[in-house]
Design goal:
Blueprint lengths: L2 E5 L4 E3 L18 H11 L11 E6 L2 E6 L1 E2 L3 E2 L2 E4 L2 E4 L7 H5 L2 E3 L7 E5 L5 E7 L3 H24 L4 H18 L1
Antiparallel strand pairs: 1-10, 2-11, 3-4, 5-6, 7-8, 9-10
Helix pairs in contact: 1-4, 3-4
The site of iron/sulfur cluster has 11 residues, from loops.
Length: 179
């Protein structure tokens, strides 16, 4: 994959052309507990109903990472087609990484740069735009909270990786519903 690096203040031509490529290129969208809860709220279900059908967990180094499930090896389980065009069936509640795409977060310690994925055929089309810096900041806040709490649950409180993930999602969902 080729990436363009953009610094704060720089612009790039981009327009979504509904290629659907971003939603059909494998199970590579990692989620946070916040994403899971927003999707469950939008669908009007308990988040546990998403398990297996729409969301999976990948365990790496004692940490369970939630991710979108793919169907047929490459298509997101939420991808639908309307009038022949690819459509996200949870668009208003789509995960943060989907909102940001084709902009890819660099790291929370590099808040002034972002990568642009040239695999997206919309890059280079349309008007020149700035990356969505505000959404990017929100994403970093959610990721930092998610992983800080996951590490506490696993390494300080002794939860197994999957139990820790479920507890974290419960905590975040309860908090969102109470607000
Ligand atoms: S959640 Fe929606 S936007 Fe994200 S990959 Fe799936 S279909 Fe695409």
């Amino acid at each position: 994959m080729k990436y363009i690096v953009l610094k704060r203040g720089e612009k790039i031509k981009y327009r979504c052309i509904r290629s659907g490529r971003c939603c059909s290129s494998g199970p590579n969208v990692a989620l946070t507990a916040f994403d899971v809860c927003r999707i469950a709220n939008y669908m009007g279900v308990d988040w546990r109903e998403l398990k297996g059908k729409y969301i999976i967990a990948i365990i790496a180094d004692m940490i369970a990472v939630p991710a979108l499930r793919s169907v047929g090896g490459d298509k997101c389980a939420f991808l639908a087609y309307k009038n022949g065009l690819p459509t996200c069936s949870i668009y208003p509640a789509r995960p943060m990484r989907c909102r940001l795409y084709p902009f890819l977060p660099a790291s929370p310690s590099k808040k002034d740069i972002v990568y642009v994925d040239t695999y997206c055929p919309g890059v280079g089309k349309g008007d020149s735009i700035e990356p969505p810096w505000n959404e990017l900041s929100k994403y970093y806040e959610e990721v930092k909270y998610h992983y800080k709490r996951m590490y506490e649950l696993v390494f300080e409180e002794g939860y197994e990786p999957l139990e820790a993930l479920e507890k974290l999602i419960d905590e975040v969902c309860n908090n969102i519903v109470k607000k």
